[in-house]
Amino acid sequence: MTLSSAGLERYIDAASPVHALDARVKLLLTCATVLALGLLPPGAWVGVLAIAALIWWAVLQARVGLGTILRRAFVALPFALAAVTLVFTKPGAPLFELPLGGLRLTATDAGLVAFASVVVKSWLSVQAALLLTATTHFTDLLHALRALRLPAVLVAILAFAYRYLFVMVDEAQRMLRARECRSAELPGRPGGRNLGWRAAVVGQMVGTLFLRSYERSERIYVAMLSRGFSGELRALRSRPLSTTEQGLLLVLGALLAAIALLANVL
Amino acid sequence: MGFESLAQYLLLGLHIPDGFLSVPVAALWWLLTIALLAVAVRRVGTLNEHQVPMMGVMAAFIFAAQMLNFPVLGGTSGHLLGGALVALLLGPWAGTLVMACVVALQALLFQDGGLLALGANIFNMGIATAFVGTWVGTALLRMFGGKPWGLVGAGFVAAWISVMVAALLTSLQLVLSGLSAAVVFPSMLAVHLFIGIGEGLITAAALAFVVSTRPDLVTSLTSYLSPKAVRRPVNRGALAAITGVGLAIAVVLALLSPLASSSPDGLERVAEDQGFLERTQDAAYNLLPDYTIPGIDGPISTILAGVVGLLIVFGLAYGIALLIRGRSATSSADSTPRASPGGRTGA
């Protein structure tokens, strides 16, 4: 199974209002959502709930499965371990004590609120980003980035990287399979010599992969030249945003700004 | 191999998700990243158009190379971040662009790292690793390129330091966003002491392999190397020695770093209770007591202490390297002089 056939790409050709929306609008709104979440102070649960409602409404509109999005959004959760310490380090009214080995950790209410805010905000931000990925072809996203003034060179590199990502991942998987096939292991005896040897094997695999990639890029360039490449990457001119799309962008953007503002003022 | 398992491999890295950085911190690093990427685009723009497909495929290569892993201990595995490797092979500016694309793709396609935090992530894992890797790598190659272990040693040290700098920057951003410095710095650095060893070993072996197979591709590096070093694929002895030394340094530093935390309820508390604090307070802390700089309060002090500490360690290593070089230069003064492209003469 290749990388491309897995994951949320299976929803990408579905028909829904969110799928049909211009990629620029979706990209801007996703960034605005993440920014608004970032601006919420800890413990602003009404604001969090309002933004969550917006995200979930969009997910339902897109018909990609709310459960799937909620589950996949846990991808960033391991990082929350770094924030657990907030519970014990933030000054505030003590809630409970946790004996850990010889030392006692005191949890505070302010710490608990700060920790919960970070985890929930992170979870919701990933949901917003997942919705964007699940409903937008990457090529459309690249056009949107170009329209939003990302330098053409960067967009071109990203496009090539996306095009050959799956090719190189397949190549790496073939190399891993070949290593497995050659790595016989007798029961009761560990295979592979010491750590340095194992690292050298992987290092040589990485080196081989680098050379294959480099030589592939040379062949790609020659193929481009033979098809008339003149040093400039051309794309269809993007159409201006329709009035409906502009309206949607403004309304939702203003709504998110209002939520962030109110949460900070009240 | 599905979506999830790929994401798991990548999660071992330093990708900060959204929600962890405060908006001013995220904005500051977005500005820094945009400014440096603009310079990189301008630098690369003056090269020929051949570079564009090459850098795109290189970004795909780094992505795929991050999947090549090897078992280390128990269930853990070592794998590559790639910033130092790609910068040493392609140069720092091209390396920066390649790594920026890798980190951006990981965020956009796999939600590995947030959008608001993308500026910081690109800076830590792309820009910082590429430049630190190039500076350290070429400085060491200039000194030791002719030695049998020169390339392997330089590749290992450059990659290890680049990972440590990335971890330090990530910790700095998290602490500036309100996480506890006493927890973030020691834990991040301790974990990456070991992750850096995997990075260093793979980078060293990959560099040696590429230089011995296609020396024409890495002309920027081969000018530092003697012809004998170019023909040697991987120096097994050097790699084994580096593994041992690296592990020893990592274990010592990892054991010391939690002790150095200024947290009153950390390990120090245990030490105080058990009465062995006096015994552990030896020369290691005299310079920067409790990992803080006297006269400055709060997390800023811890951060400064971390930066100063890293600079000191690097300065010490560099100085020792210069000393070794000076000694071997006097012992073989009549050997054929090597071309020194950097124009560096003497220590």
Question: Can you offer a commentary on this structure?
Answer:
The complex is a heterodimer of chains A (266) and B (347). Chain A has 266 residues and is mainly α. Chain A has two domains: 6-136 and 240-265, no CATH class; 152-180 and 196-235, no CATH class. Chain A contains eleven helices and two strands. In chain A, strands 1-2 form a two-stranded antiparallel ribbon. Chain A is flat. By secondary structure, chain B is mainly alpha-helical. Chain B has a single domain (3-281), classed as Arp2/3 complex 21 kDa subunit ARPC3 (Orthogonal Bundle), CATH 1.10.1760.20. Chain B has 14 helices and two strands. Chain B has helices spanning 3-11, 23-45, 51-65, 83-90, 92-110, 118-144, 150-176, 181-213, 219-222, 227-231, 236-259, 267-274, 277-280, 298-331; strands at residues 70-71, 77-78. Chain B has a two-stranded antiparallel ribbon. In chain B, helix 7 packs antiparallel against helix 14. Chain B is globular and about 50 Å long. The interface between A and B is large, with 97 and 100 residues.
Give structural attributes:
heterodimer; A: 266 residues; mainly alpha; 2 domains; two-stranded antiparallel sheet; flat; disordered N terminus; B: 347 residues; Arp2/3 complex 21 kDa subunit ARPC3; two-stranded antiparallel ribbon; 14 helices; 2 strands; 1% strand; disordered C terminus
The greatest interface here is: A-B, 97 and 100 residues
Summarize the main sheet of chain A.
Answer: 2 strands, antiparallel
Based on secondary structure, the structural category of chain B is: mainly alpha
Number of strands of chain B: 2
| N-end to C-end Cα span of chain A | 52 Å
The CATH class of chain B, by name, is Mainly Alpha
Helix content of chain B: 55-70%
Based on CA inertia axes, which overall geometry of chain A fits? flat
* Rg of chain B, Å, rounded: 21 Å
Quick summary:
The complex is a heterodimer of chains A (266) and B (347). Chain A is mainly α and 266 residues long.
